[in-house]
Amino acid sequence: MMTYLKNVTTLKFIPELCTGCFRCIEVCPHEVFHKSGNRVEVYDRDKCMECGACMMNCPFNALDVEKGVGCASAIIIGALTKREPNCGCDTGTSCCG
Amino acid sequence: MEDNCCGGACGILPSKSRNEIGFFQDVLKMDSNVTFRENLDHLLVRFGKKRFAFSVKPGLYALGDPGAYDHVLVSANYKLTFDILRRSLKNRNLWVLILDTKGINVWCAAGKGTFGTEELVEKIEKTGLLEKVSHRKLILPQLGAPGVEAHKVQAKTGFRILYGPIMAKDIPKYLDAGLKTTVRMRKKEFPLYERIELTALEMIQSWKLILAMAGVSVLLTVILGDLSSLRISLDLSPFLLAVIAGAFLTPVFLPWIPFRAFAVKGAVMGLITVAGFLFLVPAPLGQMLFIGASVIAVSSFLALNFTGASTYTSLSGVVKEMKYAVPFQIGLLSLGIGFRIFFELLGRDL
Questions:
Q1: B55 FRET partner, CA 20 to 30 A, in B85, B99, B289, B312?
Q2: Contact B74, B140 (CB under 8 A)
């Protein structure tokens, strides 16, 4: 439906390592992957939100993506404190609802 | 509890550590009735009430009267989603394993890692789930996947993970179809009512920024020496406009506003809103330029922040946006302040 910016995703797929378990298709919330024969292909890279679900659930290391907290305030805090983006509240209670 | 503990002098273990060993052994009861009071709390939490304490006890819950062959669902201990889950499961016998995500919803917790492999494995072990069911299947919400490595959980516990539908309301269909999803059940959309649900908190959370901006504006008025009440009302209203444009109108009209970048969408809505305002409420030139610039800049920034609550933006995209957006916002704001000072001093001198 809605697409964000084009050509920014850090998603990497190594087809040679894919065994066709289809876990990535099961977990991806934006239909980035499609079946291609008995393996998988990247169908729509620009829909990727870098959540990391595919990478976490691929037992064969065929997928890699740079995931992290994506909210603007977290990035600003991270840049100012010279660390990784973080919401600044590590108690677990944060801006997320 | 430990609040009344004498500090260890008595030699008896404080309640916390004594309970923790068997803390998750009890099977907790869960039903599918959500009361009026609970529904009211759901609404209030969307406005920020009790947001940091809206959780349920983690552990293994029995919905109905589940036995050794009944399915096990897994979810987070955020009361809002806990209630949404259980009201979707009327007249069923199910086990529900609730993880400790510190009251955060599944998707955010998965991103942070609290709805994750370690927590899931720990709760499986501490609740004795292996003895409660004879099958070895766990049904997880699809949006828990960013935090969970299914193959690792299987290796450590013997339980095989199946990812169920995104929405709790699809779970009955999923179960009745023999644990099968449709393509639609696996797609996360961002419909209007979900966007509206988020606006209250987006607006409320912007208060610090707005207060700072109003402070700057009032300071300028004082420094420039004109304290008529009209000026002061003009000072505060732009920032309310910015909040409406960036934290309400942009989320609501999101798919229909041109451009993909949220900061640009926010700037567009800011421009439209402030143009309308200045058409109805004319002001001296310097003031107008300041109001115009600040509403666009602040609206753009608030819209940029909305990326964190959206369902389809990526970290890489937000970083790219920010490289252009934040300097633009700061620049525009400075320009606005400069124009106001310039025109007011100019007007004075003529």
A1: B312
A2: yes
Backbone angles phi, psi at B75, to 5 degrees: -150, -175
Query: Torsion-angle region of residue B228: left (phi > 0), alpha (psi -120 to 50) or beta?
Result: beta
Give the chain A residue nearest B48 (alpha carbons). Answer: A97
**Which of A1, A2, A70 has the CB atom closest to B318's CB atom?**
A70
**Confidence category of residue B8, pLDDT binned at 50, 70, 90:** very low
Considering chain B, what percentage of its residues have pLDDT values greater than 90? Answer: 65
CA distances from A6 to A49, B189, B255 (A): 11, 18, 16
Report phi then psi at B78, rounded to 5: -85, 120
Pull the structure tokens for residue B252.
């609501």
Cα separation, B246 vs B252, whole angstroms? 10
Distances (CA, A) of B245 to A8, B218, B261, B327: 27, 21, 15, 20
Beta bridge partners of B78: B55
In this prediction, residues A49-67 reach a mean pLDDT of: 97
Residue B173 pLDDT more than 60? Answer: yes
The answer to whether A66 contacts B315, with C-beta atoms less than 8 Å apart, is yes
Burial B172-195 (b: 16+ CB within 10 A, else e): eebbeeeeebeeebbebebeeeeb
The nearest CA of chain B is from the CA of A92 a distance in Å of 6
Quick one: DSSP state of residue B55? Answer: B
Cα Rg for chain B, rounded, in angstroms?
26
Count CA atoms closer than 13 A to B158's CA, side-chain side. 9
